[in-house]
Amino acid sequence: MNADYGLDLAAVMHHVQNAKIFSIFFPALRKALVVDMRQGAEEGPMIRVLPMARSPHERLRGLKRLRPHLPRATEIVAIPWPIYVENLVRSGVWDKMATRIADSGYEDAVRSLNSSLQELRRLERQELAALIRGDQYETIWSKDEPAE
């Protein structure tokens, strides 16, 4: 998996276990799983599937709008995930995330993570179905018409 897609799983695991805020983005889905491990007085970590941001700065501004009571975040780790959602599970990355979020002690965050996985799987199924049907895709070249 590492060589085929340029993924450094050791680095991904490190960031998932240590970064305060990280985003795993799925270019084919135009979505990102955003995990903000910062905690406020009344809330725990935030885990959400959001539209892909144009830049890390845009994502940080969006987090400030979503969580205005927390201090402004200055760093985010952006992790591209160009392969299937299920590979997050198979690679062990999802388990690392789940363990870290469970260790936070916030059940709402655990539920958010679980529902995020279901949402990502649903979005991927929809995208694959659209690909098969040809929705939102155009043929760049076609087979020549047979001579009559």
From the structure above, extract its key features.
single chain; 148 residues; alpha+beta; four-stranded mixed beta sheet; 4 strands; elongated
Question: Approximately how much helix is present in the residues?
Answer: 40-55%
Largest sheet, in brief, is:
4 strands, mixed
The dominant shape is elongated
Regarding quaternary structure, what we see is single chain
The assigned structural class equals: alpha+beta
| Helix-strand string | HHEEEHEHHH
Number of helices: 6
Count of all domains:
1
Q: Numbering strands along the chain, what is their spatial order in the largest sheet?
A: 3-2-1-4
Unreliable spans are none
- N-C termini distance: 47 Å
Output the radius of gyration.
18 Å
* Count of beta strands: 4
Overall mean pLDDT stands at 89
Strand content: 5-15%
Topology of helices and strands:
Elements: H1 2-5, H2 9-18, E1 21-26, E2 31-36, E3 46-51, H3 56-66, E4 77-80, H4 86-90, H5 93-103, H6 107-133
Parallel strand pairs: 1-4
Antiparallel strand pairs: 1-2, 2-3
Helix pairs in contact: 2-5
Task: Give a summary of the structure in a few sentences.
The chain is α+β, with helices and mostly antiparallel strands and 148 residues long. It has helices at 2-5, 9-18, 56-66, 86-90, 93-103, 107-133; strands at residues 21-26, 31-36, 46-51, 77-80.
Report on this model:
With 148 residues, the chain is of the alpha+beta class. It has one domain. The protein has helices spanning 2-5, 9-18, 56-66, 86-90, 93-103, 107-133; strands spanning 21-26, 31-36, 46-51, 77-80. A four-stranded mixed β-sheet has the order 3-2-1-4, covered by helices on one side. The longest helix has 27 residues, at 107-133. The radius of gyration is 18 Å and the shape is elongated.
